[in-house]
Design goal:
The chain is of the alpha+beta class. The chain has 3 domains: about 15-95, Winged helix-like DNA-binding domain superfamily/Winged helix DNA-binding domain (Arc Repressor Mutant, subunit A); about 100-140 and about 240-345, 2-Layer Sandwich (Beta-Lactamase); about 145-235, 2-Layer Sandwich (Enolase-like, domain 1). The protein is about 50% helix and about 20% strand. The chain has helices at about 15-30, 40-45, 50-65, 80-95, 100-110, 115-130, 185-195, 200-210, 220-235, 245-250, 255-270, 270-280, 330-345, and strands at about 65-70, 75-80, 135-140, 145-155, 160-165, 170-175, 240-245, 285-290, 300-310, 315-325. The strands form 3 sheets. Strands 7-3-10-9-8 form a 5-stranded antiparallel beta sheet, with helices on both faces. Strands 4-5-6 form a 3-stranded antiparallel beta sheet. Strands 1-2 form a two-stranded antiparallel ribbon. Strand 5 and strand 6 form a beta hairpin. It is elongated. The relative contact order is 0.14.
C-alpha cells in the first residue's frame, strides 16, 4: 500500500499572542530539550505580560493541541502540530542564499574528482552529513520518463560513453569498459534507440532482465556486455542513497526494537521512495516532514528535511537529512536548501 504523508493545516485558529508564545516555547524546547514553563518564557524574552497570563495562554494552546504537559506541575512541550507552526514560521524567515556554503560544497565536489551523477550525489551526501551531523539521503526520480535515444560514443581505447536521453529533458550517462569498433558504434546506437524508444525506465529494466542478449545477432558478442552496462546504469537511477545511518543508532540507543524497525525500513527503502516521490510533486523547494506525517509508526521520533534538485528545468530528485524532531531547524533547513541548489548547479554544468 502506498503511503502519502499527511500535511497538517496549522495556519489558523491561533491569535497573535498564542502564536507568539507558541513560537517561543518551541524555540526554548528545541534549545534545551526540557519542558518550558511560563516563568522561563517571561524571563528569557523579557515579556511585559505576567507569568500568569503566559500560563493561561499556554493552557489554551494545550487545549487546542499545540502544546502538552508531560507531567503535572511541569512545563509544556510542543506537539507535532505545534512544531509545524514553528517550522512554517521559519520558512517565512529563511530562504536567503548562503554563498559561502554553496562555494564550499562546489569546491568539495570538484576536489573529489567525481563526474558521474551517482558519484556526485554520494559526495554531496557526505558533505551534507558532515555539515549537519545527521544521516543524509538522496534520490533521482525519473521512473516514468520515456527514452528518446541511446547513443554510444568512444572516448578512449576500451572505453565507451553511454548517453541515454529521456523525454522530457533528462539525460543520464556513464563511461563503460567495453571494446567496440568505430564501425559498430553508430549501428549499435541506432539499434538500441530503435529498441527502447518510447519505453519507460522501468519497462527497459524489466526487458533487459528478461532478455539480456536480444540485440541483433551480429552484435551478440557485445550485447551481453552493453546491455548489462545499460542495466547497471539504469539501476543507479531511482535508487535511494543513505549515508551516515550509524547516527540513527545513537538517536535510538535506548529503543532497540524501534531501531530494528527503522533499520529494516531504511534497508528496504520502498516507503522512503514513496514519501519522497510525493514531495517531488509539490510546489515547495524545501520542506520538513515530521515522522507522524508519514503514518509509519517507527518514524514517530524523527523528521525529514528535504530539498529538490533539478536537471534542466525538471524537478529530478531529492536530497536531505533524517534526524530527531528536536533539532535546530533554523540551522539545518538553510543547509539542506543550499545543498539542493548547489547540486542543481553541479548537475547542469556542461562538463558533468
Amino acid at each position: 500500500m502506498v503511503r502519502n504523508y499527511k500535511k497538517r493545516d496549522v495556519s489558523g485558529s491561533l491569535t497573535d499572542r498564542e502564536r507568539d508564545i507558541l513560537l517561543k516555547v518551541a524555540e526554548l524546547y528545541i534549545e534545551t530539550g526540557e519542558p518550558v514553563g511560563s516563568r522561563t518564557v517571561k524571563k528569557t524574552y523579557k515579556m511585559e505580560i505576567s507569568s500568569a497570563t503566559i500560563r493561561n495562554v499556554m493552557a489554551d494552546l494545550e487545549d487546542k493541541g499545540y502544546l502538552f504537559q508531560p507531567h503535572t506541575s511541569a512545563g509544556r512541550v510542543p506537539t507535532d502540530d505545534g512544531l509545524k507552526v514553528y517550522i512554517n514560521h521559519l520558512f517565512l524567515a529563511l530562504g536567503e542564499e548562503d554563498s559561502s556554503l554553496l562555494n564550499r560544497l562546489l569546491d568539495y565536489v570538484r576536489s573529489s574528482g567525481v563526474c558521474e551523477i551517482e558519484d556526485i550525489l554520494s559526495t554531496v551526501l557526505d558533505f551534507l552529513q558532515n555539515s549537519t551531523g545527521y544521516p543524509g539521503f538522496g534520490i533521482s526520480l525519473v521512473e516514468n520518463l520515456t527514452v528518446s535515444s541511446i547513443t554510444l560514443v568512444k572516448v578512449a581505447y576500451g572505453k565507451v560513453l553511454i548517453v541515454i536521453n529521456f523525454s522530457p529533458d533528462y539525460i543520464i550517462h556513464r563511461v563503460i569498459d567495453v571494446e567496440i569498433s568505430d564501425f559498430e558504434l553508430p549501428k549499435l546506437s541506432r539499434e538500441l534507440s530503435k529498441r527502447f524508444r518510447g519505453k519507460t525506465l522501468s519497462e527497459i529494466k524489466r526487458e533487459l532482465v528478461e532478455e539480456i542478449d536480444t540485440v541483433r545477432k551480429e552484435f551478440a558478442d557485445l550485447s551481453f556486455k552493453v546491455n548489462s552496462q545499460i542495466l547497471s546504469t539504469l539501476n543507479g537511477v531511482n535508487q535511494l542513497k543513505l549515508q551516515g545511518t550509524s547516527n540513527i543508532v545513537n538517536i535510538l540507543a535506548n529503543d532497540i526494537e524501534r531501531l530494528k524497525e527503522i533499520l529494516k525500513i531504511l534497508e528496504e527503502k520502498n516507503l522512503l521512495l514513496e514519501i519522497f516521490s510525493k514531495f517531488i510533486e509539490e510546489n515547495k523547494r524545501v520542506d520538513v516532514i515530521l515522522g507522524s506525517e508519514t503514518e509509519v509508526e517507527p518514524f514517530e521520533p524523527f523528521c525529514f528535511v528535504l530539498g529538490k534538485f533539478q536537471i534542466g528545468y525538471r524537478n529530478s530528485g531529492v536530497v536531505g537529512i533524517i534526524g530527531p524532531k528536536r533539532m535546530d531547524y533554523s540551522q539545518v533547513i538553510p543547509v539542506v536548501e543550499n545543498v539542493a541548489k548547489a547540486l542543481s548547479f553541479l548537475l547542469n554544468e556542461e562538463d558533468i
